[in-house]
Here is the input.
Amino acid sequence: MTTTAQPFLHIPAADLLQALASHTEEDLKVFREAWEDLPVDAYLKDGADYRRRRYGSFRGVDRLAPDTQGAFHQSVEVNALHGGVDRHFPPLAEEFASSGVLRTLVSALADRLPGAFDRETGGVGIHQIRIVATRDAQGLPAPEGVHEDGHHFVAQVFMGRSGVQGGASQIYDREHRPLLRTTLTEPFETIVIDDRRVFHGVDAIEPADGHRFGIRDMLLVDFFPRDDR
Here is the structure.
């Protein structure tokens, strides 16, 4: 496992695609097409509908044994906008949750974490997220602004974007000094953070010139210790 003093890594798409080389182009295409079937996130404030989402949690990095579907919970201290509420997101589709691509990808991400993590007993959370921007409303990948997620590590895996501009990712140290600002553009390009050592945020997206709407798709992978080993 990689250990680094730096609290984040910016991983080129080519790096993860090499780790996924045992899977065919068709496998990767089917994997990315899973973002076409995400329900609207019912927990957004004021009836907003710009985010689509599915979620699942697992035990063990290499086993990736599914948990009984439970609530996703963050404290108010971590997420002032949506924290303190048990959020019951629609589950991952069965085909996606059991995908060989997902298992290889999670294992490859665990190999690249910027710090130690117990692969056998640790928990893994998988979020499929699509942000939609229209001429009437921006899409907010991080409506809570610059924040932390409350996990040990978080991998932000870019899946694709179409018809949008904006959406730059930012990383800050714990004194809110900027460490990184970049726009993810290649499928499987990834930022992995030590969530205990940095804050992060993402700019809003809006339709690009000549487009009435656009989308940005992300896979977020949380790595966290479990209390029920």
About this structure: Residues 8-224 form a domain with the Jelly Rolls fold (CATH 2.60.120.620). DSSP finds four helices and twelve strands in the chain. The first strand starts at residue 8 and ends at 11.
